[in-house]
Amino acid sequence: MLPKQRQDEIVRALRADGAGGVKVLAARLGVSEATIRRDLEQLHDEGRLTRVYGGALAVDGGDEPFADVNAVHAAEKDRIARRAAELVQDGESVLLDIGTTALRVAQHLHGRSLTVVTSNLAVLEELQYDESIELIVLGGFVRRSYRSLVGYLTEESLRQIHVDWLFLGTSGVRPDGRVMDSTMIEVPVKRAMIQAADRVVLLADATKFPGHGVARVCEPGELHTVITEPAADEATRAQLTEAGAQVVLA
Questions:
Q1: Residue-wise burial string across 74-94, b where 16 or more C-beta atoms lie within 10 A, e elsewhere
Q2: H-type helices in the chain, by residue range?
Q3: Residues of 135-172 as b/e, b for ≥16 C-beta within 10 angstroms?
Q4: Could you report the per-residue pLDDT of 83-99, keeping only the tens digit for each?
Q5: 36-84, pLDDT tens digit by residue?
Q6: Which of 88, 156, 164, 250 is most exposed by smallest CB count within 10 Å?
Q7: Residue 67 in contact with residue 146, Cβ under 8 Å?
Q8: Integer angstrom CA distances of residue 132 from 8, 91, 115, 124
C-alpha cells in the first residue's frame, strides 16, 4: 500500500470510529507502529486529524459516507452477515441496526417469509420490492450521509414494537466485553433496539476488537450472540463467553 493510500485509510478509519490508537491502526494496516506515528504526525500537520497521546481523533464529528464504509472489509462483513441470516427462521421478526453490516444481512434475507424492522434507509432500498418480506420502517430524523433515521421519534417507535432478533453494529468492543459506539446520536437508538428484542446479536469484525467508542451501548451480559472472525481478540471473546454470550466465528 502506498503512503497516500495508507493515510487515506487512517482518515477513513477515524471518521468511522471517531478515534484510533497507534497499535490498533498498525494492526489494521499491517505496518509498524513507527510508520503509523509518522503518518499521524503528517496528517495532523495537514489538518486531517487531531493527534493525541497514543493515537488520533477525527477532526470533526462528520460521518464517513455510507458507500465508503460499505467498501471497507467487505468480504469479512459479508461472511458475518451470511452467518447472521442463517440464525433466523421463517415467520420470525428481525430488527436491523444502522450500518453497513446490517445492510449485508438484509441482502441475505431476500425471499424469506419474515418481518423486518429498521431505521436503516439502505435496508429499505434493498428490501422495498421483496414482497415476501413485511417491511416496517421506523420514523425519525434523516442522517443523509449515513442513510439512517435517528432521534426521539425513532426511539418512541421502538417502544411500540417487539421482535425476535436484533442484529446490532458497533464501533468497538472493549476488552471487558462492553459494546461501545462513537456516534453519540445513535446510542439511544441502539439502546432502545436492545430493549425491543428477545435476542441481541452483535455483528463485529476483528477490527472492532478492541475498536473505539466514547459511549457505552450495552454490557456483554445483554448479548445473546456475537458473530465475529477467528482473528478477533481471544481474551475479549473469552470475556463475552463468560458473560453468557455465544461467540460464533464466521
A1: eebbbbbbebbbebbeeebbb
A2: 3-17, 22-29, 33-45, 66-71, 74-86, 100-107, 121-127, 152-158, 187-195, 234-242
A3: bebbebeebeebbbbbbeebbebbeebebbbbbbbbbb
A4: 999 999 999 999 999 98
A5: 999 999 998 888 888 888 888 876 544 445 555 545 567 888 999 999 9
A6: 156
A7: no
A8: 41, 11, 9, 14
Instruction: Write down the residue that cell numbers 481474551 correspond to.
Output: 235
DSSP codes joined into one string, 29-80: HTS-HHHHHHHHHHHHHTTSEEEETTEEEESSSPPPPHHHHHHTTHHHHHHH
pLDDT of 217: 95
Residue linked to cell 459506539: 181
| The residue type at 87 | L
Q: What is the tens place of the pLDDT at every residue in 120-144? A: 999 999 999 999 999 999 999 988 8
Question: Mean pLDDT, to the nearest integer, of 207-228?
Answer: 89
Task: Decide if 37 contacts 77 (C-beta within 8 A).
Answer: no
Antiparallel, parallel or unpaired: β 55-58 and 49-52: antiparallel
CA dihedral of 83, 150, 174, 215, whole degrees rounded to 10: -170
